[in-house]
Amino acid sequence: MNKDLRCLRCGAKMEDMGTENFQLGKTGFFLGDLPNLISGAMKLSVYRCPACGKVEFFSFEPFDEDCEDRIAQITCPRCKQKHDMDYPKCPHCGYRY
Ligand SMILES: [Zn+2]
Ligand SMILES: [Zn+2]
Q: Which of the residues in the chain have pLDDT under 50?
């Protein structure tokens, strides 16, 4: 991720501080009652303004991508491709269970 970011406050070029992992389960702040659905951490890119010290966070991995990982997957016994377990048949080859 290589953004040329300008500080919203003073217009100086912001420094890329790299990515930080923020533990989601510990805080429960973002997710309320659903801490177990998303375990582990969310990666955020951290940018800091060297002039005024303003820090901004940018989501490194959109939540929508995480959603795909959370849906349970099964492997089709015929074509060996993975698909979501709530399909009544394999979306790749049409195999019915
Ligand atoms: Zn600034
Ligand atoms: Zn299949």
A: 1, 27-28, 34-37, 67
